[in-house]
Design goal:
Layout (H helix, E strand, L loop, with lengths): L2 H22 L2 H33 L10 H4 L4 E6 L2 E8 L8 E4 L10 H7 L5 E4 L17 H14 L5 E6 L1 H12 L4 E7 L13 H6 L2 H6 L6 H11 L8 H11 L4 H11 L16 E6 L8 H9 L4 E5 L6 H4 L1 H13 L1
Parallel strand pairs: 3-4, 3-5, 5-6, 6-7, 7-8
Antiparallel strand pairs: 1-2, 2-4
Helix pairs in contact: 4-14, 5-6, 9-10
């Protein structure tokens, strides 16, 4: 190719490339591209907001008034009794002539329903009283926000006065066990025997803590949970305290979930965690002189079995039975096996 022609060809290519660059640099082209990107970002943001709204709606769970829950969770023989300024939910079954009734106290996040299995067996021969403790179940929060242990032991004393019971056998699981033995320390004349089921009492480190308990101990997150509570959080927490999670039924999750929504309960559990620390009064355990049965789940990861050995060591004459295949709530997970141990203890 002649040199002049080569130059012209190169020049033509240069002009083409320059013209293309000129086209890209035009303001209207840049504006179109910017607008296009803004549209994409805006659509993404709208999609994220929509997903967020859908997610919030799915877990939106405001407080529910107690009246909305009583039909399902307080049929006969439930009753509501005025005690310490509260309308207390309880069930009182079995022979009234029993001189020393059994009072059953549930653990954190639970309710009197956790003792259904034991009650069905025990009420044939014993007067059995189970109660939703202040801050839980259908009883709901205290009037003054006091969840110190002294308030709970005073409550048990008032409960017994109201029901005209002089002495009783106290049985409690977890926090309910703590209330039981501390009542026996504070009011020794009123407690004839103790049954402690995976009871709290010592300063201890859990191998695994239910997620609901973790959230309740975080003030900022607990405020968020005052109107938001995924059902999955409750289900996960129940499964965490069972040795065999397959035993956790949808009906059981319904009960724990709906009673957690009872007006005031979520705030109450946060306050109770703040006001009650395990081990605050553990030196008093050695003062107990009443016959005591200690029942423990060998697979309890919340209050591990070494705590059972501590109770057994510190309570003179106590009996210890470990159910190797049960978790933290053995009375609920296997009521038949655990209540049989109770019957043998009471028969003595």
């Amino acid at each position: 190719m002649p040199l002049a022609c080569q130059k012209d060809a190169i020049g033509s290519r240069f002009l083409v490339f320059r013209n293309r660059d000129d086209h890209l640099d035009k303001p209207e082209t840049l504006n179109k591209q910017a607008n296009h990107m803004l549209k994409i970002v805006r659509n993404l943001l709208l999609a994220l907001v929509a997903l967020l709204v859908i997610g919030v709606v799915a877990v939106w769970a405001p407080d529910r008034p107690v009246e909305d829950l009583t039909a399902r969770w307080a049929p006969q023989p439930s009753q509501f009794v005025a005690i310490d300024g509260m309308n207390v939910h309880l069930r009182d079954e079995g022979p009234r002539e029993d001189p020393e009734p059994i009072i059953l106290l549930h653990g954190t996040g639970a309710s009197l329903h956790t003792w259904d299995g034991w009650t069905e067996v025990l009420k044939a021969r014993h007067r059995v009283i189970r109660v939703d403790l202040p801050g839980f179940g259908l009883t709901g929060p205290t009037k003054d926000g006091n969840y110190q242990m002294s308030a709970y032991t005073h409550f048990i004393n008032s409960l017994m006065d109201t029901l005209q019971i002089k002495r009783a056998i106290l049985a409690g699981n977890s926090f309910g066990g703590d209330v039981s033995w501390q009542t026996a320390v504070t009011y020794p004349q009123r407690v004839s025997r103790l049954i402690l089921v995976d009871s709290s009492g010592y300063a201890t480190t859990a191998a695994s803590v239910p997620i609901a308990f973790k959230l309740a101990q975080m003030p900022l997150l607990s405020l968020l949970l005052s109107n938001i509570l995924p059902r999955s959080v409750i289900e996960s927490s129940i499964r965490n305290v069972y040795a065999d999670p397959a035993k956790v039924t949808p009906e059981m999750v319904d009960r724990y979930y709906e009673l957690a929504l009872r007006a005031g309960n979520r705030k109450a559990i946060t306050q109770r965690f703040a006001q009650n620390k395990p081990g605050q009064n553990e030196t008093a355990i050695k003062q107990l002189k009443v016959p005591t049965l200690i029942i423990w789940g060998g697979l309890d990861r919340l209050i591990t079995p070494d705590n059972a050995e501590k109770f057994h060591r510190d309570i003179a004459g106590s009996q210890l039975i470990v159910f190797e295949k049960l978790g933290h709530v053995g009375h609920e997970e296997d009521p038949a096996a655990t209540v049989a141990a109770v019957q043998a203890f009471l028969g003595q």
